[in-house]
Amino acid sequence: MYEFLIKEYINKLTEDDIKKYAQNYQIDINDDEAKILYLYAKNYWKEFYNGEPNELLDELREKLRPETYEELYKLYQKAKSKINE
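and the corresponding structure tokens:
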């Protein structure tokens, strides 16, 4: 059930949505980071939801500023733990 809802959300996702989400958590992301996160969300959401995204996370660590990556990684871990409850 969650997978269907996530798929529908991702289909409607925009770069502005990513910026607003980060802003809601007081995470400063620039336009380049928003574009990267948008592309990863659109192309790899299933891996982040179902799989082992370690390789993708390593790629993001290299592409994002360290402070941005760390804050977003914390949010990802929190969301992932709620899904797995």
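(Above: one complete record from the training split.) The mean pLDDT is 93.
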